[in-house]
Every structure is written in structure tokens, then in C-alpha cells.
Amino acid sequence: MKALNNKLKKALNERKKQHRYRTRRITKSPQQIEMQVDNQNVISFCSNDYLGLANNSQIKQAAIDAINDFGVSSGASHLVNGHSIIHHQLEEELAEFTGYPRAILFSTGYMANLGLCQALVEKGDYVFEDRLNHASLIDGGLMSGARLQRYLHNDVSSLKQKIQKVDNTSEKLVLTDGVFSMDGDIAELPALSKLCKKNKSWLMVDDAHGFGTLGETGKGCLQHFSLDEKDVPIYMATLGKAIGTAGAFIAGSEELIETIIQKSRTYIYTTAMPAAIAEATRYSLHIIQNESRHLNNLNNNISYFRDCCRECSLPIENSQTAIQPIIIGDDYETLQISQELFESGFLVTAIRPPTVPEGTSRLRITLSAKHTHEHIDQLLGVLCKLIS
Ligand SMILES: *Cc1c(COP(=O)(O)O)cnc(C)c1O
């Protein structure tokens, strides 16, 4: 045992030397703007709680009421006896909200992406992925056993070159983030959709960061581009980000959802999410449809942040979304800036390879509906002094 642990220790030390060692900070408050983290009070600029709903009192009450009615654990998988009427209603409401015939819940987004790939492709088929796709999409492609090809980031001609080389008899699946999670830019869905239709390929978009935040009423990246289910046959989104709860869903045709129920191991062999989480999600969807102020605040903060960055010449990227990275490049320097921000009372995570490509370490700043202009002013005041 000692020898084995020594081997691990050596590898861990190697990581530390490369400034790639990952550690966790401990929070003592709910997910909100003002947080207590590692015993320090900080203003958070790194959450995915874009609409500020993670600690919403009405959503919490919905969960509490459902716990009283349904208990805590769902107790079994959806296919045994864990699929409650609340899960079922939520699936129907998600289908209705997104404009697809059916929707199906998963316990996490990671599992949804693995399950989708498994349901649709196998050895001999092809999966095409944007180079900057989320790790769960890449892993889904790899685990399916299909041949995985990665095209240049958001470059439809790069995909076209690859997809046209494939014979017409193999199944083809194109996977893309809707909003790229570390860059904040939006996938070129209209062009991707056209290409996929022409080449008889499935197109699946993972809208983890767009669902709730993009489009006029927060329906996500399809609404942003005025596309519908005929343009993007498979839509996936997570519930732990803007929605403020947990889990994920896939929306698509009747046949697609039934195929997932038959074949996706990450759907079949896992316990259903607690019914209370499903009920909280129903309430969150209700809020998103009835209270536009959350989305309006977020959009106002995105514009304000970008205007202020331009004024003080901070190097922002081409992102219209809540994800506003500032690329530093060097791993160590990025960590230093993140640490100095923390000591000044701001929580902004340093994102390093392999999460992002080599040489593009960055501060991943995320905005929320709950930030005030003062919060943004304070952050940028410190950041301008640290970067220049
Ligand atoms: C967060 C995220 C996931 C994973 O979702 P979880 O519910 O956290 O497992 C998948 N895809 C993208 C693009 C994400 O950002």
C-alpha cells in the first residue's frame, strides 16, 4: 500500500509543480452573491446561478412542501418505481416550454450527455464535436465507441470538410455546446443545422449555459436564433445552472425519448432525482415564465460589465452571455490574480488546462441577475489595478 501511495504522491507533486493542482474552497453560505468562503466574506463572480434562483425562497418552499409529501429520496430508478407524478409533470412542462414533443429527466447533465450518445451511436458510427465542447460531451462520444472527430471551434466549414468524407450508410451525430462554457460565445446553430440536414446527421445542442438566459424569454439558444425542433432535433439542458435546482433533461421526438428509455445506461441504472428537486424545478420554470426581471437584470449587467471593461481597456472576449472570460495565458499568473482578487474580497476562479487549451488560462467571470452595478464597479476597480 505504501508503495502505491508513494506513486500517487509523486504524481500529485508533479501536478503542483505545474501549477495544475486542483483544490476546493469550503463555503458556509447558500449559493448567492455575498458568500462566506474559506472563512472569508467575498463577492462571488464565478457561479453558474445566472438568474439568482439557487436560493430563491419560493423555490425552496416548493422543495420543502414536496419533501413533506414525497420524502427525500426517490428510492429507485425511473424504470422501477422512482418515477413520481412530479417527475412526469416536469417532463411534460419542459417539453411544452422548449417546444419539443417529449422531454426526459436525467440526474445530472454529465449523465444525460453520456446517455444520449449511447442511445444513438455505436462502433462504426461517427460523432463530430466542436473542439471546445464540454468534457461530458467528449466523454459521451468516446464512451459510445463511435469514431470521434473534433472540428475547429465554431467553424462550420471545418465540420463540413470532415462530415462530407463519411459514407452515407453510417449514423452521424454532431454535438455542440450552445453557449461555450469557458468562452461564453454562442454556437453557429443556423449554419450547423443547415449542414446537418443536408448530410442527414443528427444535431444535438447542450444548452447548459443558455437555458434560462438566452432568447427573449429565456428559452435558450434556439429562441436566440429563432430556430425550432425541426432545425435542432436534440436539445439538452441542465437544471443546476440558471434554473437554480439540479439535474438535466433531453428534449426531442417521441422516438428519441423512447430510445433513451430503452438504451441509455446512465438513465436506466441510476436513482431518479428526488421528487422535491423536480418540484423545485417546476416552480423555477414558473418564475422564469412569469417574472422577466431576473433575465432583464442579467442582460443589463452583461452590457454594463462590457461597457466598463472597454472604458478601462480590460481584454474582454467576444461574448454576449453571462460568461465573460478574461484570458491571461500563463497558468501561474492566472492563479496569482485569482488569489489577489480573493484577498481583496472577490471570488473569481482561475481556469487552467486541461479545462481550456494550453496557453489560454483565464479568469472565468460570470455575471448574475443579483449583481448590482456597485458589485461590478468594485470588481473592475481591483482588476484594473492587477492587470495592466
Ligand atoms: C455543467 C455542464 C454540464 C454538466 O451538467 P451537470 O448537471 O453539472 O452534470 C454539461 N454540459 C455543459 C456544457 C455544462 O456546462
Features of the shown structure:
single chain, 388 residues, alpha/beta, Aspartate Aminotransferase, domain 1, Aspartate Aminotransferase, domain 2, 2 domains, 7-stranded mixed β-sheet, 3-stranded mixed β-sheet, 14 helices, globular, binds pyridoxal-5'-phosphate
Description:
By secondary structure, the chain is of the alpha/beta class. It has two domains: 126 residues, Aspartate Aminotransferase, domain 1 (Alpha-Beta Complex), CATH 3.90.1150.10; 234 residues, Aspartate Aminotransferase, domain 2 (3-Layer(aba) Sandwich), CATH 3.40.640.10. It contains 14 helices and 13 strands. It is globular, with a radius of gyration of 21 Å. The mean pLDDT is 97. The protein binds pyridoxal-5'-phosphate. The site of pyridoxal-5'-phosphate has 14 residues, from helix 4. Pyridoxal-5'-phosphate binds next to helix 4.
> Under the CATH scheme, which class of the largest domain?
Alpha Beta
Spatial shape: globular
Largest sheet: 7 strands, mixed
**Which secondary-structure class do the elements indicate?**
alpha/beta
Order of helices and strands: HEEHHEHEHEHEHEHEEHHHHEHEEEH
Gap between N and C termini, in Å? Answer: 49 Å
